[in-house]
Amino acid sequence: MWERSHPAYLDYCFWNVLHMSHKFLNDKRALSLEDIGARAGVSRSTVSRVVNNDPKVSSATRAKVLQVIEEIGYTPNLAARALVTKRTQVIGVLIPQRLSTIFNEPYYFPALLHGIASVVNARDYSTMLWVEEDKDDPRRLYERIIMNRLIDGLVIVSLSHKSAIIEKLAHVDLPIVFTERPPRELERHAYVSIDNADAFRQLVQHLLRLGRKRIGTVTGDMTNSDAIERLAGYRSALDGAGIPYDPSLVIDGDFSRQSGYYAAHTLVTRGVDAIVAANDQAALGVLDALSELGRCVPDEIAVTGFDDLPAAAHSSPALTTVRQPVLERGARAAQLLLDLIEGVEHNTRHVLLPTELVVRMSCGAHLPSGTAR
User: Are strands 176-178 and 274-277 parallel, antiparallel or unpaired?
Assistant: First the structure.
C-alpha cells in the first residue's frame, strides 16, 4: 500500500470519500421520499410529484404531504429535480432601463420587485435580474436571457416600444409576462397592468369639475405603454368636455422629478391653471418649480400625480394622485408566470388591476383619503 503522503494514496482517499458521500446522500434522499410517503399514506411517486410541483396532485394530498415534509425538515435536491422536471426553477426579470432610472425611482421598481420576489420565494423558485443599458448589444442580451436556457420564464418590466429586443422576443418559445401592456408585436404574451387611460381620464375630469379649464400635462417616457395610455386618457377627458386638444400644453417627460421641474417652468409661461403629471415623481418636480416661481398651489395652479408614492402624502401641499397596486402588480405577474410554467390554465392572460383616485390638497378639493372614483 502507498505511504500516506503518496499522491496516489491521497487520490484514493479523496475518491473513496466522494463515493461514500454520494451514496449517503442518495440513500438519504430515497429514504426520505419513502419515509414521507409512509407517514402521509401515499406512494413514493406521489411524494415526488408534490416535490416537483405537479399540478395534477389534489389539494388535499398536496397539503398532507407538505405537512409531513415540514415536520421532518426534508429539503429536495434541486439539481435532481431539474433533471426530472426539465425546469431550472429560476425565472428571469428584465428591466430594460438605465441603472440610473431604476435607482432614482425610490418606490415603483423596488415595490414591483418586492411583489415578484414574494411569490417566487414562496413557490420555491429563484430569480435572475437583468438590466438593459444603452450600450448593451440586444443580440448578446437575447442570448444571455433566452438562448442559454437558464430560466423557465421571464417577467419584463417597463419595456420601451423602441427596444431592439422586441423583434427577438416576438418569436421566442418561452413563457413571458409583462407588467404593462406590451407592444403590438408581443400581444400574444400575458400581462398584468392597470387601465391607465381610464384612470388618467378620471383624474383630468376631476380637475374639470373643480373649474380648471387650461390643463397642461407632463408625460412619461412616450416609448412606454403606461405613458402612452395616460396621455390618451388626458385627451379623452378634454374631448369629452368639448375642450380642443392643445399640443403646446403637452410637455414630453420621462417620469423623472427633473422632467416635471422643467415642464412646469414651460407650462407656467403658457397660462395653465392645472398640471397633471404622468407620475408622482414628475409631480414632485412640478411642485418644486412652482414653489421656486412663487406660484401658489392649488389657488393659482392645481397639481396632480399618479402612483401614490409614500412621499405624495407628505409633499407640500399633499398631492392628489391615482393609487395603483404596484406591489400586487409584481406579485400577480409572478404568479401568472409560474402558473404558465407549471401548466396551470387561466381564463384570461390579460389582467387589469383596479386603481383609485386619492384626493388631497394639491388639486384644491380635499376629500377623505382613498376616495374611489
Answer: unpaired
Contact predicate 181/365, CB 8 Å: no
340 lies in the same domain as 244? no
CA 363 to chain centre: 29
Measure the N-to-C terminal CA separation of the chain; round to a whole number of Å. Answer: 86
User: Residue 32: inside a domain, yes or no?
Assistant: yes
Mean pLDDT is highest, among 64-68, 108-112, 279-283, for: 279-283
Cα–Cα nearest to 213, from 251, 253, 263, 249 = 249
- Give residue-wise pLDDT tens across range 179-230: 999 988 888 899 999 999 999 999 999 999 999 999 999 999 999 999 999 9
The CATH number of the domain holding residue 45 is 1.10.260.40
Domain boundary among 55, 85, 115: 85
- CATH number for 300: 3.40.50.2300
Q: How far apart are CA 284 and CA 17, in angstroms?
A: 64
Phi, psi of 161 (to 5 degrees): -70, -10
In three-state secondary structure terms, 125 is coil
Instruction: Give SS3 for 102.
Output: helix
| Domain finish residue from 52, 85, 118 | 85
Reported in sequence order, the residue ranges of the chain that DSSP labels E, i.e. its strands, are: 90-95, 126-131, 153-156, 176-178, 190-194, 215-218, 250-251, 274-277, 302-304, 321-323, 350-353, 356-358
- The predicted-structure confidence for 216-243, as pLDDT tens digits, reads as follows 999 999 999 999 999 999 999 999 999 9
Question: Can you give the residue range of the structural domain that contains 70?
Answer: 7-85
pTM of the model: 0.76
Domain count of the chain?
3
Burial per residue of 45-55, b for 16 or more beta-carbon CB atoms within 10 angstroms, e otherwise: ebbbbbbbbee
Distance CA 217, CA 104 (A): 22
pLDDT of residue 111: 93
What's the alpha-carbon Rg for the chain, to the nearest Å?
A: 27
Q: Is the peptide bond before 76 cis (omega within 30 degrees of 0)?
A: no
Sheet strands side by side (includes 274-277): 250-251, 215-218, 274-277, 302-304
Percent of the chain with pLDDT over 70: 83
